[in-house]
Amino acid sequence: MNVTIELYIDYRWQTVGRFSPDKNTLELGIAGSGVFEYEIDYTVERLDNQPQWRSGLNYPVSFELFRSDRWPAFLLDIMPSGAGRRVWLRRLELQDRASADWELLCRGSGNPPGNMRIAEAVIPSPEQRHPGFSRDDIITRHADFIEYAEQRGAVVTGATDVQGDAPKFLVCRDRNLRWHPDGSLPDSELLDCWLVKFPRGRSDADRTVLRNEAPYLEVARRFGLRVAQPLEFCNDTLFIPRFDRTVTDAGVQRHGFETLSSVTGIAEFGKRGDHGLFCAAIARYADQPQNEITEYLRRDILNCALRNTDNHGRNTALFKLADARVQLTPLYDFAPMFLDPEGIPRSSRWANELEAAIGRPDWDAIISTLSGVIDADILRSTLHRDADTVARLPETMSACGVEASVIERLTQRCNEIAADLRTLKG
Question: Considering the domain 255-422 in this protein, what is its CATH number?
Fold first, then answer.
């Protein structure tokens, strides 16, 4: 009993290795033990072990058998989770138990974001080309679109409105500007690739969070963070250009990435993240640790100031690029999550005294803990210079289109974070 893991390299899917769960722990799902091993032919060709060839950054290409007490963390990056799990459970008529994890991996991991997939989960291309859908069909959540998207496995999270969660879909456009579920078109017919989000729930607060995600990203752009193309919002629908896909004349590039949860070996869902461990992983694998850790800390400054509390380790990832560079992907899932009706707490924090007051990290102490891997003086100077920029964030938010009611609730926090940064000395 095993699954075949494939990576998209050099414009084609290649068999990388296999994961075999132990039968006696299969009922435990992701908490069960198992073995991952690379294919011999794949290993022979890639013994120089570039990061983009690894299934996970912690799994160097080798002839070794990787035995673990839990499933490899990189598998959790590609299998359905959260509300998306409920969609697949319904489709497969399974109960929500750990024992369903194996079936979800085998059936629901055929076309996830990034460049990894489970071969056995790939849904064959339709025999007849579908004419596609209009943008309005997506915005109105036309029943035919949702049904076809679920059939094609394009649901990455969310469910139908009947279950209380709105869908999130991977979609693409053809050259006639018609929309299709991702994976239903040949690469030769693709124009571009998108992710479409709807409000998490039915409340006004849910809609406010989604409306402000696009302007939040523009605030991050002005702050100097690494961001991708602007988002498009229309009638409670957010269209997000995908940064893990690039359509070129030579074909579609599928860029590999791995979440910080996976890179730090977190093989479970819902565990609180530790920024210190995440920074250690960035320092270990990024080819320019100073730049990437600076980017990471500046993201956390903005998360604190603008109260994006849903900052868990699967909402930040490292690119494994084709030229062997490892760096943070563009910022994603950045929104005023403090408004969410479910009351989402700050998901990742600094340990102990580094963040004694939640949302008010001790930046100087944090930089001191990182001095072994980065130039602490340069980082202090950089964050000190950010103080005035943070203080001006309310004006920046207004210029970027963040709603006044949101800005009003953030002004004091921006002033507090700015004051904290001013205490830093280079």
Answer: 1.10.1070
